[in-house]
């Protein structure tokens, strides 16, 4: 479910991220950041419920979805600066930042470093760090090799099969890159 238009925004020389740009409005902006192995599509259901109340700004994190995949590894500071670069490119002064897992970790960095640009934070299923690094390297390798299917629980899918089908289709497209 797209609310705005998709643009590729350069966050550093040669690195472009896919960004759903919100429609102009006086409404507050909520910026959504995806979890590891996911794309901005993971927010579709939330966006459908709140888009009449706020301006939605979401993007595919570096290395995810339709964003560029420059050589890694990436740091949280680098990913946080990507989000701030998006705000700069769109001339957006203030946002509520909402992140899940990896997106939440980026939100912690943005909360500590974003200053007055941060109107609020919504951080879910996250922590200030994710040790041990080997666990996340293995998980990232699994997602690259098999997509998100190994991480989806059957009882979650049963509750909303069409929603999960659209997420899986989106993630398959993104993992094919």
Automatic annotation (TrEMBL):
Pfam families: Abhydrolase_1. It comes from the Bacteria. Residues 28-140 form the AB hydrolase-1 domain. InterPro entries: AB_hydrolase, AB_hydrolase_1, AB_hydrolase_fold. This is AB hydrolase-1 domain-containing protein.
């Amino acid at each position: 479910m797209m609310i705005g238009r998709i643009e590729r925004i350069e966050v550093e020389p040669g690195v472009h991220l896919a960004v759903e740009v919100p429609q102009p409005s006086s409404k507050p902006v909520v910026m959504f950041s995806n979890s590891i192995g996911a794309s901005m599509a993971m927010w579709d259901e939330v966006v459908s419920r709140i888009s009449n109340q706020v301006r939605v700004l979401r993007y595919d994190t570096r290395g995810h979805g339709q964003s560029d995949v420059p050589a890694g590894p990436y740091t949280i500071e680098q990913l946080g600066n990507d989000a701030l670069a998006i705000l700069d490119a769109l001339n957006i002064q203030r946002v509520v930042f909402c992140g899940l897992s990896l997106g939440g970790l980026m939100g912690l960095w943005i909360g500590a470093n974003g200053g007055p640009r941060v109107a609020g934070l919504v951080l879910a299923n996250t922590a200030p760090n994710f040790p041990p690094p080997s666990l996340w390297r293995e998980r990232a390798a699994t997602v690259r090799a098999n997509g998100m299917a190994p991480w989806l629980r059957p009882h979650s899918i049963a509750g909303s099969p069409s929603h999960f089908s659209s997420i899986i289709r989106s993630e398959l497209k993104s993992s094919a890159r």
